[in-house]
Amino acid sequence: MAISTKVVSRRRILKSAVQAGALAAAPQIIPGSALGLNGAAPPSDRIVLAGLGIGNRGSVDLGSFLNERDVQFVAICDVRAERQEAVKKMADDKYGNRDCRMYGDMHELLARADIDAVLIATGDRWHSAASILAAKAGKDIYCEKPCSLTLVESRALADTVRRYGRVYQAGTQRRDIENFVHAVELARSGKLGKLRTVHANTRPPATTHNWLVGEPEPPKQVVDWDRWLGPCPWRPYNSLYIQGRWRGYFDFHGGGILEWGAHTVDLCQWANDADSTAPVEYEPQGNHVICRYANGVKLVMRDDGWLNQGTCAVRFEGDSGWVETADTGQMTLSDNLKAEHRAVTMKGTDPSTHIRKFLDCVKSRALTRSNADATCQTHVACHAAYIAWQLGRKLSFDPGKDEFPGDAEANRMRSRAWREPWRI
Amino acid sequence: MYQKRAKKQAPKAPAQQDATEIMKLGEAGLIAILQNPGSPVFAKAKACQRLAVIGTKDAVPVLAALLADKQLSHYARTGLEANPDPSVDDAFRNALGKLNGILLVGVINSIGQRRDAKALNPLLKLLNDKDAEVAKAAAAALGRISGAQAAGALEKALRSPKAPVFPAAADAALVCAEGLLAQGNRRQAHALYSALNRPEVPKAVRTAAELGIKKA
């Protein structure tokens, strides 16, 4: 049998050797960014960030992240191909390259050892599941609110973050917006006197169990409907859900109390120094829920009756004065506290300071202001209020056990089974 | 220049399947929907969701019969998982021997969520199931149930780092160890955390185990 051999000519060998020598002798060009030049932090100082499910609000967050010199955004995972492309373009345009990678499966993204942290803005139904998976993969987490759909999810999220020692910041950026911070300080410092009542601007609570009429499912590579649903119950596909009209559907949404309460109840919790607890009583009155803490402070969750200062308003009332503020930055105080007025220009929706503080905590490993435990308690309060509203009756709650004592019906509403294969 | 503002038209409400009347039914009406072979999937799904809040032991067999239904299994688990009646645990355990694949994974997840200690023996067998997803679900459920027997099984699983169940067993071991600490079993919790201090264990879990061992 003839054996065919590939003869490498001596000329080719010499040519290769010359090329190799030329490469070894040539000056190495190191990009300025690798040396921390041109405004970029050196690689050793950079936080490598990826995104899970970045839509409208997520793009606002991502914009703030991309403005930070010590962030390198490297990957996006989304169940919608057009969002993958849009976010990739946002990152590639910023960095002047084509390096941002796209994923349809978050497990693949989370398995990357180079990724330090994730930005999660998937839509409420995925927030706790994605955060839990990210924590288990050793990633730090910035997750948009609300952070859970049920009371039990809230606790599981906090437990997992703590178990894995992760840095977690909920997207409740009003904890870092000056007018809100100042109002909380007035309450906590005693300048309002003994705190009596805190008010949280919430939305009308109702959700629906209806289904939109089914449409043909698009190809998986365009929209992966199964993954869009994630842990939520199956229902037929309808394009309106993925266009953002999932709010108000019980299966995807924790209700209107949680929608704004994730921000405003959160501020009330903070003002009342209640970050490690929740109210012990919840009484629905129309669209309002009147709650009471063990320390006697009343929390009023209401959707109306506010001074016209914008969205996500809060009001804190003490024996000696009161303060009310909202997203425009405007602040109104009782006459005796006018000297405490602050003019604030940063709007309540601006996440930039909150994001910067998250990044600082990723480096220092310090607790964030909107950490998982505090966030959990806020969500517990909102979920408990929504349960009371759905049942139409007053409920007692034990925040130490996350239970409604002796109330089997209310306790059954603390959780929802996750669709297989997902599990808490 | 004067410009007429165009009249804003309210967007037309999209067509929907309406659950309102179903969600008002009592248990008997909801069970009737589930037992009627002509009931549409939508009605059965809603009936299951409502039974999650109001179902008694009477609803359990009707819901359990749907655990093998590919389209409705999760809805059946929704109706069952929140129901405190102990017959639910019997129903889930009985289903273990009848299901496979993803539906079996779902039932195992519900058993773990309810922390049914009577399911320990079947779960120990499923930990070695040839279906990797079933084995992982069993590991997770054992972690939630916790206790000495579960801990022993998970520790044994951690001796096979190449097995597909290994990462799930590692995470489950963390959860199990916390359960042991809550039961006052510091010795076995410490042993479990120590078993996780190996290079084959995912780094995130090793870090978590180091945190846990400080509490043990």
What's the total count of β strands of chain B?
Answer: 1
Main β-sheet of chain A: number of strands, strand sense, barrel status?
8 strands, mixed
Describe the strand arrangement of the main beta sheet of chain A, using strand numbers: 14-13-12-7-11-10-9-15
Order of helices and strands of chain B, N to C? EHHHHHHHHHHHHH
Distance between the termini of chain B: 78 Å
Mean pLDDT of chain B, as a whole number?
A: 94
Tell me, briefly, the overall form of chain B. Answer: elongated
* Quaternary structure type: heterodimer
Structural features, described:
The complex is a heterodimer of chains A (424) and B (216). Chain A is an alpha/beta fold. Helices cover 35% and strands 16% of the residues of chain A. Chain A has 13 helices and 15 strands. In chain A, the strands form two sheets. Chain A has an eight-stranded mixed beta sheet with strand order 14-13-12-7-11-10-9-15. In chain A, strands 3-2-1-4-5-6 form a six-stranded parallel beta sheet, sandwiched between helices. The longest helix of chain A is centred in the C-terminal third of the chain and has 20 residues, at 372-391. In chain A, 48% of the residues are buried. With 216 residues, chain B is mostly helical. Chain B has 13 helices and one strand. In chain B, α12 runs antiparallel to α13 (203-215). Residues 1-7 of chain B have low confidence and may be disordered. Classes of the chains: A alpha/beta (424), B mainly alpha (216).
Keywords summarizing the entry:
heterodimer; A: 424 residues; alpha/beta; eight-stranded mixed β-sheet; six-stranded parallel β-sheet; 13 helices; 15 strands; 35% helix; disordered N terminus; B: 216 residues; mainly alpha; 63% helix
In short:
Chain A is an alpha/beta fold and 424 residues long.
Layout of strands and helices, then pairs:
The complex is a heterodimer of chains A (424) and B (216).
Chain A: H1 10-25, E1 47-52, H2 56-66, E2 71-77, H3 81-95, E3 101-103, H4 106-110, E4 117-120, H5 124-136, E5 140-143, H6 151-163, E6 168-170, H7 178-189, E7 195-201, E8 211-212, H8 225-229, H9 239-242, H10 256-271, E9 281-285, E10 288-292, E11 298-302, E12 314-318, E13 321-325, E14 331-333, H11 352-364, H12 372-391, E15 395-396, H13 408-412
Parallel strand pairs in A: 1-2, 1-4, 2-3, 4-5, 5-6, 7-11
Antiparallel strand pairs in A: 7-12, 9-10, 9-15, 10-11, 12-13, 13-14
Helix pairs in contact in A: 5-6, 6-12, 7-10, 10-12
Chain B: E1 16-17, H1 20-23, H2 27-35, H3 41-54, H4 60-64, H5 73-81, H6 87-96, H7 101-114, H8 120-126, H9 132-145, H10 148-157, H11 166-182, H12 186-195, H13 203-215
